[in-house]
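hey
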């Protein structure tokens, strides 16, 4: 494959003065760009399969197995704790990766660490007999997903030129939905048997990450690592929102849009059990149907929208449209009283996500504050994808209690709040300067 050129521009020199790795220009990697993109997408699919199968199905089944009466509370607590871990781990893993001087490269050690975390987390989830062990399993799986995401996206920015990332970014954005599709597809033959439900997606995650680590030419950084200071450590978790206002607005927009997604994904399984009255043994099949719709629409829409966006040279109008469509899907979900109606809502949500994934990450990589050390800033930006899990987990009990009856919690209030957040996130992207 080809790689960004070796020349040191004035802009690159300015970026290099920032804390962290400086002047990270590597020789062109030996592997082809197509082969690299395939491995990056496969790794993202594997990580998405392990994470999303847990988020959509196996965590709910395990919490119900531990105590059905308190399953909702257990999931909320576990999701909140995992959300806090995510907030800390995203920029920290990114910064450590940027600063790594390992002879194995900057990203490869963290790909291996992610594979180890998925292995340990999967075993713990199956074996957990208490709520603390359940939460620990959730935390370890979350750490694996965070580490894999930061490493894979950093490799994309490391090894592909900025003007050649569009198609690869669209494919990479579909990795998690495709992983969710795989995770749910393997669930169908096994009902509520946790061993294969957890084991098969975990195996895909581990093998795909190992394959990427083995094949990628992730060269050792030639420069000495700067001395760590208290200010540098605090800077890991901070990007000046005034100096880098475009980054701040992208962060805000992402956080609001993904709050809508979190409202649906985080409580979908419980919603199906309590509102649609599905049996636990059929839950996997029902969620597979929603994931197939979501992933199918995304795969159809994202490449087309990506090409149109590239041709027009604009991203923001598509992001706004995606957020409005996503909000409409959540409104439809709030009124669904049976599975067919809910599947229609999921189709609309999938359309919104397909448009969003096609363009948003491309825009995000164009406004990074320090393009020579992308992993730390990408880690901070990825907080916006995951902070909503904590926010929704904290607010959901209140929203679910509004007008709750003996029939169950008020899922409509939760989904409508998510719809409003998503639409607000779409309008927030219009304030981004330096991108169209």
């Amino acid at each position: 494959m080809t790689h960004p050129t070796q020349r040191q521009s004035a802009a690159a020199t300015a970026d290099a003065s920032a804390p962290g790795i400086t002047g990270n220009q590597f020789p062109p990697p030996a592997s082809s760009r197509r082969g690299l993109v395939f491995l990056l997408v496969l790794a993202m699919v594997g990580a998405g399969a392990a994470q999303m199968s847990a988020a959509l199905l196996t965590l709910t089944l395990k919490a119900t197995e531990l105590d059905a009466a308190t399953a909702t509370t257990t999931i909320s607590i576990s999701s909140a704790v995992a959300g806090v871990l995510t907030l800390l781990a995203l920029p920290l893993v990114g910064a450590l990766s940027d600063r790594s001087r390992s002879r194995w490269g900057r990203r490869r050690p963290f790909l291996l660490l992610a594979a180890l975390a998925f292995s340990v987390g999967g075993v713990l989830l199956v074996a957990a007999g208490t709520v603390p062990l359940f939460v620990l399993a959730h935390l370890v799986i979350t750490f694996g997903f965070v580490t894999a995401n930061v490493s894979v996206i950093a490799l994309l920015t490391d090894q592909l030129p900025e003007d050649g990332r569009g198609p690869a970014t669209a494919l990479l954005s579909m990795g998690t939905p495709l992983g969710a599709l795989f995770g749910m597809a393997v669930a169908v033959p096994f009902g509520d048997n946790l061993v294969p439900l957890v084991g098969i997606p975990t195996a895909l995650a581990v093998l795909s990450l190992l394959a990427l680590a083995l094949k990628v030419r992730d060269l050792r950084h030639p420069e000495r690592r700067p001395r760590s200071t208290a200010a540098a450590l605090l800077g890991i978790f901070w990007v000046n929102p005034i100096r880098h206002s475009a980054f701040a607005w992208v962060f805000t927009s992402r956080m609001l849009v993904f709050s809508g997604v979190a409202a649906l994904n985080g409580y979908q399984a419980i919603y199906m059990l309590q509102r649609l009255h599905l049996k636990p043994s059929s839950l996997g099949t029902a969620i597979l149907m929603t994931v197939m719709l979501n992933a199918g629409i995304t795969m159809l829409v994202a490449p087309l929208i990506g090409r149109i966006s590239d041709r027009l040279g604009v991203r923001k109008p598509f992001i706004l449209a995606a957020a409005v469509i996503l909000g409409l899907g959540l409104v439809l979900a709030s009124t669904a009283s049976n599975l067919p109606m809910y599947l229609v809502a999921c189709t609309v949500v999938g359309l919104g996500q397909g448009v969003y994934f096609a363009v948003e990450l491309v825009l995000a990589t164009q406004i990074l504050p320090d393009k020579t050390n992308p992993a730390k800033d990408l880690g901070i930006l990825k907080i916006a994808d995951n902070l909503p899990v904590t926010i929704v987990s904290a607010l959901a009990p209140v929203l679910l209690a509004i007008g709750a009856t003996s029939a169950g919690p008020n899922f409509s209030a939760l989904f409508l709040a998510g719809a409003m957040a998503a639409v607000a996130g779409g309008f927030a992207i219009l304030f981004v300067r330096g991108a169209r």
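The mean pLDDT is 81. The CA atoms of residues 258 and 385 lie 6 Å apart.
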